[in-house]
Amino acid sequence: MEHHLSFSCDYMEGAHPRILQRLIETNLVQTPGYGLDSYCASAKEKIRSVCQAPDADIFFLTGGTQTNATVIDAILKSYQGVIAAETGHISVHEAGAIELGGHKVLTLPHQNGKISASQIRTLLETYENDANHDHMVMPGMVYLSHPTEYGTLYSKKELTEISSLCREYQIPLYVDGARLAYALACPQNDLTLADLAALCDVFYIGGTKCGALFGEAIVVPKPDFIPHFFTIIKQHGALFAKGRLLGIQFDTLFTDHLYETIGNSAIQAADQIRQALIQNGYQLRFGSPTNQIFCVMENAVMEQLAGQVEFGFWEAYDDFHTIIRFATSWATIPEQVEMLCRLLAAQHA
Amino acid sequence: MEHHLSFSCDYMEGAHPRILQRLIETNLVQTPGYGLDSYCASAKEKIRSVCQAPDADIFFLTGGTQTNATVIDAILKSYQGVIAAETGHISVHEAGAIELGGHKVLTLPHQNGKISASQIRTLLETYENDANHDHMVMPGMVYLSHPTEYGTLYSKKELTEISSLCREYQIPLYVDGARLAYALACPQNDLTLADLAALCDVFYIGGTKCGALFGEAIVVPKPDFIPHFFTIIKQHGALFAKGRLLGIQFDTLFTDHLYETIGNSAIQAADQIRQALIQNGYQLRFGSPTNQIFCVMENAVMEQLAGQVEFGFWEAYDDFHTIIRFATSWATIPEQVEMLCRLLAAQHA
Amino acid sequence: MEHHLSFSCDYMEGAHPRILQRLIETNLVQTPGYGLDSYCASAKEKIRSVCQAPDADIFFLTGGTQTNATVIDAILKSYQGVIAAETGHISVHEAGAIELGGHKVLTLPHQNGKISASQIRTLLETYENDANHDHMVMPGMVYLSHPTEYGTLYSKKELTEISSLCREYQIPLYVDGARLAYALACPQNDLTLADLAALCDVFYIGGTKCGALFGEAIVVPKPDFIPHFFTIIKQHGALFAKGRLLGIQFDTLFTDHLYETIGNSAIQAADQIRQALIQNGYQLRFGSPTNQIFCVMENAVMEQLAGQVEFGFWEAYDDFHTIIRFATSWATIPEQVEMLCRLLAAQHA
Amino acid sequence: MEHHLSFSCDYMEGAHPRILQRLIETNLVQTPGYGLDSYCASAKEKIRSVCQAPDADIFFLTGGTQTNATVIDAILKSYQGVIAAETGHISVHEAGAIELGGHKVLTLPHQNGKISASQIRTLLETYENDANHDHMVMPGMVYLSHPTEYGTLYSKKELTEISSLCREYQIPLYVDGARLAYALACPQNDLTLADLAALCDVFYIGGTKCGALFGEAIVVPKPDFIPHFFTIIKQHGALFAKGRLLGIQFDTLFTDHLYETIGNSAIQAADQIRQALIQNGYQLRFGSPTNQIFCVMENAVMEQLAGQVEFGFWEAYDDFHTIIRFATSWATIPEQVEMLCRLLAAQHA
């Protein structure tokens, strides 16, 4: 099943070596469970520091869908829904986890995976102006992903506009940072962790796709913004018994700026692949500057390529073409990139 | 926060060295996500083999509450509840995870953490005979834990009786094996993994408390007993992206009988502690033969002891005594046991 | 199926004639839907007045289980449960409606259907003192019924104690008044509607069993205690399109003290039946002073009686006796009571 | 608040006089509760007969949102969603009742309120062909309304195509007949109750908007298609204590073809209004042939008209025009229609 050359996703390997090393070193140290250990405490302090949010509540969970479902269910009132792009992970690829929690995803059309403050404003105003809105789902929060599912980035200006709007309407803003390291490593990105902490009510720093074995760090800049969140996490089956494993991983990721730099090689690799695609006449899609590369490929070419390298089939472009995705990661090595570039050139020739 | 001597629970350390070694060796191997990798496939084959259930469906999740909540919600119809001991983990210590899924826990009084076939039969008959039962929660499955929360074990005879009753009433039987390795290592235990597969509709083999870094293996002996369980797991936020980590761990646990023997030292340590308690005049409770040791302790003695060793405060016995718990694990070392035994003797003297 | 003589429950007939008359008179008047009509407005004013709660929010729903499920789900946080007697309607006879909303019913042993402030205090203190309470369901409100399922009544002193405790712990108190008219008509009752409004955070005034065709009036003395309750009601499928029907009924019930007196004849009838039972040597149970009469009956006698009059089979008393229930209502007529008394005397002879 | 001339909706009055008469006549008859009475039995037989579905299960509930939420939650597996037009009542105007039950509404673009077999087929095929569909919400049933929210009708041919597709995919088909009487009375309609029973797995016959005081009759042509539906109804707070009230109403509606003819005058009135609109130069919208009339109106005209007659504001058409709705009902009288036609002519002149 495993392919010799694969760009199918960014969670195909284990962990960054420094993380593995820390897990080995600490393996037999005894700690209390449920995140009440000193590794978690240390990781939280480091995250608070880099986020410039000294009072932030931090929680560590094991996966992205779990994190989204738990955060959203914790924030929304029972009668509220969450505003998201129609392409948002919670809209499409979480098997109804948000609805299982009783909430509607209120979708907006996307522009390369993004939604805008003005779209959200229109939705909120339309709701408010509808004479029947007491019979409708109330918009209760905004969900964004950064980078988006299409690899694109919100600018600081765009996120600030959305944040201001949310505060005007007193609606929490939540950012899914499953691939946040690849934003931070991207030259086009102008949003820091401190910016996210200043602009969002809740966001999560993705570990699973960004160098950890697994794990996501939820940041709640304003303390106690979600009362009894520990119990809510437990109730959602999302409280990890050996929380120390998450603490050790995030403590390592936030030592010596590892998290902020771990995506660098992935971005360079992605840029190299984008260059190769353009040079060989392929059409890029969605304008992603991060570690996900989308391009249009003729179906016959695609099928031949698929025999040599693993990648993602995104969606049909037309009857004869498909949009495919290559994903690089912190673990991608130059040899793999070069081999892919050669394959792309050969296909085209 | 970390204590120099601690018997407070059985998940205070990382993983068994062989597991860690496998994680290191495989760290940079690329695999697909979500458990579709060859490590998971291999682990599943080994579990099917030891369970003598060649067609069993196997699923790997990351924690016990998550596993219980997902399995129970998957098995029950919306209008059904789950029968459990009032002391069952799902009844008390899962923060309402079962109710979050919409289901009532139908509790029965326990005998040292266990419930009996005759109790369950009475509950089922009472329900059936109640003229108003269409207005009541229908009992839809039985939940047991083996070992129980009080460290006790079901005998093969007892579990067979419960299993027969469940089949008579066509009600699934589910066994929570969070600490199953400590049952398998216990001389008093006469239930093998193959017995569990033969007698249960679903059970889980606990990893988190039994030598894994984390993870539980759900065994469904009859294939497709839970249709679309993969999607149900995803919807519950319980689908682990890097499923290979779970596959690697369970593949190791089921190589060279590691899982069936990993609890041996914990049982020996527990027996040694039990002997020390008896010799020093303490009263044991609940008759646990496994890695959990319960005893009654005078409050003044307990407080003094608490300054020297970490343990669990279970429940008040009377105004002057408390029931406390010591837990050993696969990672407990002889020096720790000897130190505890010395402390117990010293307290008493 | 219909019996010629029946004391099986208190909702066997339609509506009090005055209510029917008002429905006839208003039948073709056009009103807006969803309770936004002038009948509802008038009924609400009358209820506010008799409750001495001039700012109270009032909502009309169609049935008791619906009301309980909607109110409890609206009040509780997702991680909280509701404290109730083990015999409470929500504990036993609502088919898991509370759990469907995601909440555990935290049951307490009952005394003739009642629970006490001291029991509730112990539960709250036990929860608070449990070192693991963050892993447990948090008690979030108290549910009582008045009269209880066993026909008994809370005294003003008892309810005041429970209310004080709830305020001390900042836990809402909710009273299910499905049969409230039978309390108000009972000489032993010392709780007025104004007392309920002063002591409870939410209560409901039962219509279905108390002279209405159907309907229950939820009283929330402190306005906006449940924000967006209209939408919550809609989301629970409990918003009645022709709300005017509920308004008309409750407006009639609260005109000329109908609600406060409609139970008088039922209480007199019940007292007469209780006298007949005692005189004929039957043992009364639970000490109900309201319209429900419980007694112990030898099974052979019971079976013979069941051929002549319909009543409720409550629970087995022992192998040879059963506890049965007779219920009177506003519609019970003297001839029926006399016939029942004759039957009881004849059985006994 | 009540207007002297109102066409704002079709549930502004009480009940058809024959129904009221039956409620008066039966008011003091004693019956068992919960629909186990002889009136319900009789009504069910009459509905089975007219539906030519002699074994159908029939259930009576009190309102439309309640019915939709209960039926949909009963039919779907936890991981499934319901396919509906984006304008479907369940998509927009039920305050998230479907999501409260844990299910996603999978919306399709509408054509005048309708969706087609080919749209549904595309959705099902897209789902099946998506390599990631195990991570997505599975389409589990189809929801239609007949008439639709826009007053339009499915033809027998269209519904047969959808029904065949649903059977091909083994996906239940459910039709919301809140306004079914207005379809049955409409000359353009070629779908009988027997057709609905033959083509649907579940549908409901609306009472609230069609002459009853309140109530909806769920028809399940294939018996036991929804096991334990009685308990599911109870759990959803939708089991009406005095079920006889619903039985009496539907028994009357299905006596002497009342239900099939009760909409006649409403359709004639609507046709008359449509004629007046056309004659006065207004643009009709959506092509509704039933009791709902939609037209485009200049905002200034609309505001003047709103001072004289009550109607519904549907949606903005452009910056200067609004789509408004007039609804007639069984209770609309010729004088009201004439007055409205005069107003329309006067506005225009």
Automatic annotation (TrEMBL), chains A, B, C, D:
Residue span, Aromatic amino acid beta-eliminating lyase/threonine aldolase domain: 33-241
Keywords, alphabetical: Aminotransferase, Pyridoxal phosphate, Transferase
Keyword Transferase attached: yes
The keyword Transferase appears for this protein: yes
GO molecular function: transaminase activity
Signal peptide range in chain numbering: none
Cofactor field: pyridoxal 5'-phosphate
PANTHER family: L-THREONINE ALDOLASE-RELATED, LOW SPECIFICITY L-THREONINE ALDOLASE
Family the entry assigns: Belongs to the threonine aldolase family.
Protein's name in the database: Aminotransferase class V-fold PLP-dependent enzyme
Organism: Ventrimonas faecis
